[in-house]
Write a structure and sequence with these properties.
Chain A: GO terms for molecular function: acetate CoA-transferase activity; butyrate-acetoacetate CoA-transferase activity. The structure holds two protein chains of two kinds. Chain A is built from seven helices and eleven strands. By secondary structure, chain A is an alpha/beta fold. The longest helix of chain B has 12 residues. The chains are: A alpha/beta, B alpha/beta.
Chain lengths: ~240, ~220
Amino acid sequence: MEQKVNKQISIEDASRYFFNGMSLMAGGFGGVGAPPSLINMILEKNIHDILLISNDTGFPWIGPGKLITEKRVKKLIASHIGSNPEAGKQMQEGFLEVEFVPQGTLAEKIRAGGMGLGGILVDVGLGTVVETNKQKVDVNHKTYMIEPALTADVSIVYAQKADFYGNLVYDKTARNTNPLVATAGQITIAEVEEIVPIGSLHPEEIITPGVFVDYIIQSKGVDWKWVWELKQGTGLQEEQRSK
Amino acid sequence: MGLGAETRHRIARRAALEITDGMVVNLGIGIPTLVADYISSDLHIMLHTENGILGMGGSPREGEEDGNLSNAGGYPVTIKAGASYFDSATAFGIIRKGLLDVTILGALEVSEKGDIANWIVPGKRVPGMGGAIDLAQKAKKVIILMNHTDKYGNPKIVKECSLPLTVKEGAHMIITEKAVFHCADGKLVLKEVMNPYTVEDVLSSTGANVIVDEKVSVFL
């Protein structure tokens, strides 16, 4: 079949969907599988006052951590900020509002948003501060919290491959929250390592059907050093941290 | 904090004895990560990670790391035969459905009833719970590995936790550099002391009611 669909756009064109005060959902876990080129574009375009929904805040120089370090995020919904001291500091200073959600619950809230559900019923965190101010319901003689679904103005994800329809294939643990986040954006933009012709991905290997993906951009690749690449004593770690 | 490598490895070695053939196991960050080194290669164990692996293997050789293949702490790993990759919803579905036989976690405080506090020190350290609540509430067996006391020498095993809880009555076992406790029916039972500590050493640095088992053994 002749190729009529092409969702590939330039990163410059993609930048038009980002605006101050937006809600932004980002795929990635500890920065692995976070889209580096899109995150850099958000920094370069000076987008600020972002409500960020992400599993975690990566490291100060890795993944969505960069958006925190540059003070572009005013509110964060995440499960963990421990690997990013800058996030903790901004939280203590009152600059960054943080809403913590248990990791599995966060994943399901995002999935619910992407699947057109209003929310989920979950018992993880009953008996802890997690249940504070939560609406509860008894179903089949068990008590659950009602956790509303999450969506965002724009979802950004990272995938190994896309075809021009936006069908996505991920790579190992860089998959993580990406397939969930990809479904939950009003607009979803996928940054990918490789763009291939329609028909060249086997339908069985596609993890995210392209119907969820509005645009794809070619990744310029990871531009940060991973924590394990930073040898102690070389000063590199400190240099990266201070960036 | 401040435990020497040998002590950390002894705790890990003891914890590894709790892992038996066929188990599905999740190891937390810190001392729990070391447990993998002591699991007998004769056992068929599936290590689970929150970031989407069942069947995680050891560390890769230097130079063979893959930036897209890491554990939940962000460090490179390998996989073993039969491994699978999946998204975060599935990773936590495995936990929430109760398919984990054992999770091994660190903690800030554990109460004599088995309450665990391990994710927040209000006003001081607020890293977030990550997957700790899911793991501690849903794994079939929860083993806590930690220092017996904090850096000021205060007991971390207490009558009631002072910090916000991760889970109520979730711990099944506590292993420290001094002792091994079982938690069952709201009671804390001292089962083993770690060489060279004595029962008295353990009791004097524990802030909870402890039942001393009739047959306390020594773990070398």
